[in-house]
Amino acid sequence: MAAPWAPFAATFTNFLFIRGRSGLARSRVAWKAAATERRTVAGTQVLRLIHTTSPTQKKNVATSGREECTVAFIKKQIEEFNIGKRHLANMMGEDPETFTQEDIDRAITYLFPSGLFEKRARPIMKHPDDIFPKRRALQWGEDGRPFHFLFYTGKPSYYSLMHEVYGMIVDLDKCSDHLRAKGLLPQKKNQDLIGSRWLIKEELEEMLVEKLSDQDHMRFIQLLERLLTLPCGSTEEEYIHKFRRAIPVQSKTKLIEPLQYDEQGMAYSSGEGKRKTAKAKVIVYEHGSGRIKVNGIDYLLYFPVTQDREQLMFPFHFLDRLGKHDMDCTVSGGGRSAQAGAIRLATANALCSFVSEDEVEWLRQAGLLTTDPRVKERKKPGQEGARRKFTWKKR
Amino acid sequence: MRENAWSSGRGGFDPRVGARNRPRNFWRGMMLRKVIRLISKSHKLDPGRFLHVGTRVSQNVAVGLDAQVPSEKSRTISRTQENDPAKHGEQHLCQHYSIPLEELKTIFPHGLPPRFEMQVKTFSEACLMVREPALELLHYLKNTNFANPAIRYVLYGEKGTGKTLTLCHAVHFCAKQDWLIMHVPDAHCWVKNCRDLLQSTYNKERYDQPLKASTWLKNFKTSNERFLNQIKIQQKYIWNKRESIEEGRPLGEVVEQGLNRVKNASDAVGIVMKELKRQSSSGSFRLLVAVDSVNALWGRTTLKKEDKNLVAPEELTLIHNVKKMVTNDWHGGAIVVSLSQTGSLFKPRAAYLPQDLLGKEGFDDLDPFVPIQVYNYTPKEFESCIQYYLENRWLQHKKAHTEEGKKELLFLSNSNPWQLERLCAHL
């Protein structure tokens, strides 16, 4: 089995190495020793792992990252990735045709188990488009003349895009003049635009592989809006859709548990919540007199501090149901404040079953249904605590 | 709302505003209120009701009275005019009755909890709520058969439910009925925080606490002045080589001796207790022994001897004497006792039952007894308490008289009187 494995292993390790090296290249650029070689050996890849001694700033991006910018290089990487994917599928005993990215990830974690805490430092195998950042291809030829006519504006792709959109607007104006003269104006349809939003500045920058300013982005969006006001044909609409992203629907993500009934026919609902290290499980009964027991102990004895009891009171008080429900809770872990917060979250989750959709939305907006993400920050070496530094002595 | 002398509560006045700056309506309002008080006294209605009449001068006083009387009856009445505990019955439940301040000084020189004393000073009146356990206890006390040995009544309950105040209610009743009251305010005081432990001259094994004994004697004297001259001692007592007390002298002299010579105070206490116990059986007077935090008698102490050993409670003279009083081998009176976890030493916070707080030894000593449990407020009692605070203008928060505010307070305090009082102190 060694023979068929060897070439595969070579490509595999090549691939992994290259990924590792591109990571290095991204952060510490300009290997002075390698740069000279590269200029002479343009187009071919240098696969020796040369250790960098001096990290330098990101200057000469175009020259030092030249090998990665070539389209041929990326294409070769893609081919190698696909071959590697098929080999991996064979190794794992699965069908190479239907081997998805999740399967790849699972296979890699199985074959290369890593104990590193930082997930981004573990071995990964992904499509080259995800790994290599989009770089601009070389923009001038051998004689030094730039290819694009707008190169000297500094943002050629952005200005060419604006120019294109403006060209479309002018054309559409002419068409609409003709159509208005004939009296055949088509109706405006706006349904396509609901549920989507324009590109934000970061996404536009990513698309154009250029740095933009806020004003540039604003001008671009204004131009697109102006395009929308005119009667568009289907090609224009497709073009506009390239610049729109769908908004995910947020508020419907909460699942409301149905009410459960116990032996006596009393309706109850349970909820869970946690805060810091405390976890709480709560059962809220529908009809009651406001009696609350925590771990079998009355809440007045369990939480002697008024602040904790106010936290318990908050969900009921918000929904105006102060004396109407009975509650049984079990809570463990954390301290007194964390346990109170955990019970509060659990109560709010449990009360969702008794309450209408609007009130669930109000609860969500009041922040009663969100788990508090704050946890204790890690202590760093060289400091006394998470943030506190050691006492600074001048001498 | 106009920011003026009226902004602090309806019908109240802001003492920061000077007399000249008060609006005109203020003085007319004061006159109105004085008139209303006179009228209300004649009608035997509560003066506090009419503060809500308002300050509109044009309102006729008679019209005001007529308008207010029907709406009053729909509100929960939180006060009663019946100030004699002997006449308190079922119809007075959940209502506050007031104790005149002069009586307070004589009957309770040392018996009331400190927070209650602060409240008395603030409101300039002492009001106790009539509650079920107290009524039960009073009923038993009224029907005591003085020929039988003294029955022990033990008040117990969770922290802050009102055991001490119920005890004080019983003491007030007995004082009105002309009993002799031996009230030990807090037995925990005697087993901790004592700087001066003297070895007793009477019994080498025991230790004296002169300061605490002398304070107790002083308070005892204030509360039972009239009995001190009537009761005569029946045995000769020798203090030391030069001083002694003959048979037949009034008890007041023993007390004087204890107060003058602080060293002999604890022995004086012992003598007083012995004599009273012996003579109550004869029937000339009735004796009430009221001990708060009785679980201190059988617990542990934090006091140390010179050689750093812990003192057991039996080795303290005062405790020893009180233990003798609490045994039911005498007749002609009653023993009312309450447990308390608050000042207790080495007991967990959640403990409130007699077995937990008294320990096996204490339980056996006190057995048999009549247990009376004191609970948190019922909804009616809670309502009455809030009404009382509102009347005395103690709750200044806007939401305090709304239903939601009351529900919040109910939840936060879980109807516990102690907790409620602390919460309302902030409002």
- Report how far apart the termini of chain A are: 66 Å
The order of strands across the largest sheet of chain B is 4-9-10-3-11
**Element pattern of chain A in H and E:** HHHHHHHHEHHHEEEEEEHHEHH
- Average pLDDT value of chain A? 81
In the sheet with the most strands of chain A, the strands line up as 3-4-5-8-6-7
SSE inventory with pairings:
The complex is a heterodimer of chains A (395) and B (427).
Chain A: H1 2-27, H2 32-40, H3 61-64, H4 66-69, H5 71-92, H6 101-111, H7 128-131, H8 156-182, E1 196-198, H9 201-208, H10 214-229, H11 234-241, E2 244-246, E3 260-261, E4 267-275, E5 278-285, E6 292-294, E7 297-298, H12 299-302, H13 306-318, E8 326-332, H14 336-351, H15 357-366
Parallel strand pairs in A: 6-8
Antiparallel strand pairs in A: 1-2, 3-4, 4-5, 5-8, 6-7
Chain B: H1 24-43, H2 61-74, E1 96-99, H3 101-107, H4 114-123, E2 126-129, H5 132-142, E3 151-156, H6 163-176, E4 180-184, H7 188-191, E5 198-199, E6 207-208, H8 210-223, H9 225-230, E7 237-238, E8 244-245, H10 251-260, H11 265-280, E9 287-291, H12 317-326, E10 333-338, H13 354-366, E11 370-373, H14 379-391, H15 403-413, H16 417-426
Parallel strand pairs in B: 3-10, 3-11, 4-9, 9-10
Antiparallel strand pairs in B: 1-2, 5-6, 7-8
Features:
heterodimer; A: 395 residues; alpha+beta; six-stranded mixed β-sheet; two-stranded antiparallel ribbon; 46% helix; 9% strand; extended; B: 427 residues; alpha/beta; five-stranded parallel β-sheet; 16 helices; 11 strands; disordered N terminus
